[in-house]
């Protein structure tokens, strides 16, 4: 347990906040650690990160540990992109996917339904309301495309296609009301060969910011999607579009533009400078990313709004930094990322 350089840490807390048990206090899969008296997180069987045993409901179970980037060094950075072009979602021109390489296009059968964001090679973060069936959703009917410039065109060089092997919808999301609290879901993706995403100029991950990280009011961020040009529009835009929006203060969002019953602490608001740029139907689940120190962080998930690009009605987004623990618990990833691991492309 103490033989590798990777194991030299003194962390003893899991991603759920539980304290690790001493290694010599249990037997795990017929392995005894009787000579190991500490309770530090270790990785004896080479998993994606160190783990330990905890007691949950009178059972011994393993959990990944709360290891920060100081203990786990990434092989490749997230939040990087090859291009940097700003165009509009509402009324704008098309954008190259290299400027938003983390965007995912989610399909049900042959029909596009929502956007998403690649946060790790095997995981896409999106909106819960994209899956009205909740736990009863038939995930075999869904597929995810990365590196896609247009939803009605195929580029075999840029694109990567995946099946959905697991869907995790936030247990606090209520499908029976129009309340969009906890509008967040995770998709685990895998291709026909059992592989996850491969890093290219058109496919990269966005970073997850630290827990409850805040950016100042008026800070410029970006949204992207394949959604409709206007609410009630018959066709999706087909081509990827992106726009620049500014963060709206929580006070203004809850009291000036909406009410506290509509917008709560798990949401944030953003709007274009002249109320001309906004997300629309079909953009749901897509990214609101903000650049910090030349790195793109996922601060919001496109969730809802009143009409599209309507004056004094900013777009409303799921506040990602309220869900670090939830994301980590279900994926085994660190609570926030400064990098991601990719397989090497052959």
Automatic annotation (TrEMBL):
Residues 89-332 form the Peptidase S1 domain. One of its GO terms (cellular component) is extracellular space. GO terms for molecular function: serine-type endopeptidase activity. It catalyses: Preferential cleavage: Arg-|-Xaa, Lys-|-Xaa. Keywords: Disulfide bond, EGF-like domain, Hydrolase, Kringle, Plasminogen activation, Protease, Secreted, Serine protease, Signal, Zymogen. It comes from the Eukaryota. It holds the Pfam family Trypsin. This is trypsin. It comes from Sinocyclocheilus rhinocerous.
């Amino acid at each position: 347990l103490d033989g590798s350089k990777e194991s030299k840490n003194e962390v003893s807390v899991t991603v759920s906040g539980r304290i690790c048990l001493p290694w010599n206090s249990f037997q795990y899969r017929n392995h005894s650690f009787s000579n190991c008296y500490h309770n530090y997180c270790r990785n004896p069987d080479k998993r994606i990160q160190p783990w330990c045993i905890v007691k949950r409901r009178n059972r011994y179970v393993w959990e990944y540990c709360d290891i920060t980037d100081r203990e786990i060094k990434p092989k490749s950075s997230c939040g990087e992109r090859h291009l940097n072009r700003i165009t509009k979602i509402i009324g704008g021109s098309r954008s190259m996917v290299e400027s938003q390489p983390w965007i995912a296009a989610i399909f049900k059968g042959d029909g596009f339904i929502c956007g998403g964001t690649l946060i790790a090679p095997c995981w896409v973060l999106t909106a819960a309301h994209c899956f009205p069936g909740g736990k009863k959703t038939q995930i075999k009917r869904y597929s995810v495309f990365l590196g896609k410039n247009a939803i009605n065109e195929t580029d075999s060089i840029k694109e990567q296609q995946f099946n959905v092997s697991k869907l995790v919808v936030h247990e606090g999301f209520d499908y029976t009301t129009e309340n969009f609290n906890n509008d967040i879901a995770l998709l685990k993706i895998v291709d026909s060969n059992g592989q996850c995403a491969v890093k290219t100029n058109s496919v990269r991950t966005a970073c997850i910011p630290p827990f409850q990280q805040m950016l100042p009011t008026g800070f410029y961020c970006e949204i992207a999607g394949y959604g409709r040009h206007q609410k009630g529009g018959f066709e999706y835009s087909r081509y990827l579009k992106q726009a620049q929006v500014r963060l709206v203060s929580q006070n203004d969002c809850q009291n000036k533009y909406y009410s506290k019953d509509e917008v709560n602490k798990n949401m944030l608001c953003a709007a274009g400078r002249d109320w001309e740029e906004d997300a629309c139907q079909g953009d749901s689940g897509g990214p609101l990313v903000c650049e910090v120190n030349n790195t793109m962080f996922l601060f919001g998930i496109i969730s809802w709004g009143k009409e599209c690009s309507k004056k004094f009605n900013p777009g409303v987004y799921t506040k990602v930094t309220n869900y670090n623990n939830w994301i980590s618990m279900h994926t085994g990833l660190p609570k926030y990322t400064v990098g991601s691991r990719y397989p090497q492309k052959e």
